[in-house]
Structures are given as C-alpha cells and as structure tokens.
Amino acid sequence: MKVEPIVVDTNVLLSFVIRPHGFIGEVVSWLLDNRQLIFCTETFDELKTRLWRPKFDRYVTIEERKLFLNDYAMNAGWVEITNELKFSRDPDDNKFIETALVASAPVLVSGDSDLLNVRVDNLEILTPRQFAEKYIDVVQYWIHETSGEYIVKESAV
C-alpha cells in the first residue's frame, strides 16, 4: 500500500524512461511500489511536454509514452498549487516544491542543482542516490564500467 507521498522531478522520471534498468530506474521502481507519486497539473504538463520531444524517439515509442503517461496519471495523487511560492533561483522549480508542500510530502527527489540547493522547512530535497542511501535498504552498489553510473547490483531488500 502506497502511504507516504513523494514528488519526483521531471528529470528523474525521464531518466527512468530512458534507462529503466539503471540505478535511477531501480530507485523510481522502488518509489512507485512504496510511495504515492504526487503531481499537480503544472508538473505533469512539464513531464508530458518533455517526453514528447523528438530526442526521446530513439528511447521510447509513441505507444510506450502514452502508456507511461496514462499509468502515472491514473496512479498518482494530485494536488492544486497556486504558483505563488518562490523558493528557487529557477522559477520553473517552484512548482515541484509547492506540490510537495501542498501534498505534505516529506521528500522531493531531483537531480536539478537549483532544486538541490534550496532549503525548505519540512521538506528534504534529495538526489536519487541520496534517497536510496537514506530510505532504501540497498545491499550493494557497483559502478558500471563504461558509464560510471551507480547501479544496484543486488535487489533492494
């Protein structure tokens, strides 16, 4: 049962789409199984807009994109935001912070350096790796020989 809400930034979700079996894929899969992913219209619109860019054609088919977006829309929790809160140097990041605050999500997962530098009471903003190290009991990591990416060697337990 998905109990605790969580907000995941667009860049992390797109990384999951491109490399579902890499480290970020493992983390996002765990999140989908163990947390309630939260969107607002603005964060979901950003995901849709970016996912439909032609540069993703080589990674996912049109049908896979439709399924991905439909699954997220159907299974996510939804909140409404005002777009009035200002936390980040990058105004496009504020919607993710406000979404987390409105949903009372204790964590926002992001790879965006502007978001990662923001400090907000009652909200942790963590990279996927930081989240995994803190919240997922991952047995062991190894570094992929060609990409240098952290990969989960053994399943999360």
Can you give a write-up of this model?
The protein is of the alpha/beta class. It has one domain: Rossmann fold. It has seven helices and seven strands; from the N terminus they run βααβααβαβαβαββ. The protein has helices spanning 10-18, 23-34, 41-51, 62-75, 94-102, 113-116, 128-135, and strands at residues 5-8, 36-39, 77-78, 107-109, 124-126, 141-143, 150-152. The chain has a five-stranded parallel beta sheet, with helices on both faces. It has a two-stranded antiparallel ribbon with strand order 6-7. Strand 6 and strand 7 (150-152) form a beta hairpin. Helix 1 crosses helix 2 and helix 1 (10-18) runs parallel beside helix 3 (41-51). The longest helix has 14 residues, at 62-75. It is globular and about 40 Å long. The two termini are 17 Å apart. Residues 139-146 have low confidence and may be disordered.
